[in-house]
Amino acid sequence: MKFYQTTGFFNSIFFKLFAIFILLLPVTGLFIYANYQSRSTLITQVHITHENMLQSYLIQIDNQLKNAVTYGINTAWFESDPQLALRNNESESALAKMRISLKLSDQILSSSIIDTLFVYTDNEFISSSQNSLEIEERTALKSYVIQAAASINTSNISPKANWNLVSLYNHSVMVNLNQGDNGVLTGAYINLDRLLSHYEKNDENSTLLLLPNTELKSLEATYSKDNLIITGTSSSAPISFAEIIPESNFMNTLPFMQKYTLALSVLVTLLLPFVFLLLRLYVVQPLQKLNRAMKHIQRGELHYRITPYRTSNEIAIVNHTFNQMMDEVQHLKISVYEEEIKTQKSQLRNLQMQIQPHFIVNSLNMVYNLIENKDHQTAKQLIIYSVDFYRYMVSVDADLVPLHEEVKHVSTYLQIQTIRYKDRFTYSINIDPMVEDMLVPPMLIQNFVENSIKYAIHMNKCIHISIKVNSFEINYYPYALINISDTGNGYPVSQLECLNHGKKIIDDNGQHIGLRNTVQRLALLFEGQAKWHFYNDHGAVSELILPARFSELTERPSLDEE
Fold first, then answer.
1. The CATH fold of domain 327-547
2. Whole-prediction pTM value?
3. Residue 499 and residue 490: Cα distance in Å, rounded?
4. What is the DSSP code string of 361-414?
5. Where are the domains of the chain?
6. pLDDT tens digits, residue range 188-244?
C-alpha cells in the first residue's frame, strides 16, 4: 500500500500519456531540425556557388582596373610621347599624338571593362573608347577631364590609384585621373551600368546590383528576408556587387520527400496537443472519475454513485456495472446490519443476564449490612432504587428509548452506587431540554458511567463523574453531544486508538466488550451517522454525537462536518 502511494502518480495513465507526449516532441523536433538542416545546407551551397562566381568576376575586374591605373601612371610619368606632344615642333608633336592614340587603342582592346582611356596635354584631349560609347558620353567625359585638370593642385602631385564615383550624362561612372609632374593628365573611364551588364547570371530571376560601398549597410533593410543576398567588394575601387536571389527560386529544388517530411512533422506537432486532449477527455478523465468514486467508497460512502454522462461504450459499461455493484453491496450491507443488530440484541440480553444476578447479590448484601447496622431508612431507599433499576433492566426491549428515561435510569444507578461507595465520588447530570425526548439506545450512558465507577474510583481519592447532553444543529437539523467524563486516571493510552476505531480491547484482565459493543450498536442503529471520540483530559472523557431522532420523526439526515 505504501509503495502504491509513493509511486501512484508516476504509475498513472495521465503520467504515461504525458510521458509519451514528451518523448514524441524530440522526435518531431528531430524531423524539423533535419529539414531545417537540409534547407540550410542548400542555402549555403547556393551562396557559395554564387559567391565564387561573383568573386571570380571581381578578380577579373580588379586586374583590369589595376592594369588601367598602371598604364595611366606610366603614361603620365614615364612615357616620352606625352612630353613630345607638348613641344612646339608640329611634326614631332603630331607624331607623338599619333603614337599615343595607337597605344590607347591597343590598350583598350585588351580590356573588356574599360570604356575609355585618355591623355590630356595642353588642351589636347586624346582618347580611345569602346565602340559602344556614345558621342554625347565622350563629349561629357572630355568636359569633365578639362574641368578636373584646371582644379588639380599642382603642388601635391603624385601617382594615384584612386577611382572617383561621379555622374556623367545621366550615368553612374567611375573615373581615374593621374597627372604627371610635366602637366600631362591621363586616366580611365568606366560606365558602371555597362560594367554590370558584363556579368553573366546563373539565375535569370536574380537581381544584380552595383553600388558604392557606403550603401551596403542599407541593402538588407531594403530587401525582405525571403531573399538570399550575396555581396562582393572590389579591392581596387570603392564599389561592390550584390546579387539578390529569391529563396523560392532554389527552394523548389528541394527533394519532394524532404518537403513531405517537413509538412508531416509540422502536422504531427500541431496534432499532438489535440490527440493528447482527446486521450485526456475520453480515457484519462473517465478513469479519474472512476478513481474518485473508488475513493468515496473507500471512505465508507456507500451511497456514492457515478453520475451517467456521455462517454465511450466501454467506459459507460464500466460505470453502469460499478453503480449496479454498489447497489448490491449496499443492499447486502443493510442485510448484514440487520443481522448484526440481532446479534447485538442477543449480546445485550446476555449482558443483562450477567449483570442482574451479580447486581442483585451486591444489592442484597448492602441491604443486609444496613439492617445489621440498624440504618433502616437507607435500607428502604436502597430497596426502592434497586426495584426501579431492575424494573428498567427487565422491561427494556426496544432498540431505542427516550433520553430522559435513560437519564433517570442512570440517576437511579448512581444513587445505588452512592450508598455503596458513600463519599468516594460525586456526580452531576445536565441535560438540554431541547433533546431530552430524543431516542437513544438503552443502557448507553450507563455503560460509560459503570466504566468510570469500575476503573476510576480509588480508596484514597474522591472523583467526580459528569454527564452533559447539549444540543446543536448541522444543516438545520438537531444533534446531541453527549459528554461523560470523570476525574480519575483516564483511559490507558494504549487503548485509546482501539476505542476510537471500535477495535477489540484485550488486557491482563481479559477482553472488554462493554464499550466496544456500545459503539458498534451506535454504528448499526444510526447507519454510520453516529460519531464518537475518546480522550483524556484530567481523567477519561467520552464524547458521542448522535442525530436527534424523535418518535414522531422518520427522516434521517447525514452527519456532514461543517
1. Heat Shock Protein 90 (3.30.565)
2. 0.44
3. 13
4. HHHHHHHHHHHHTT-HHHHHHHHHHHHHHHHHHHH--SS-EEHHHHHHHHHHHH
5. 2-14+254-324, 40-249, 327-547
6. 999 988 888 877 766 667 888 888 888 888 887 777 677 888 888 988 899 998 888
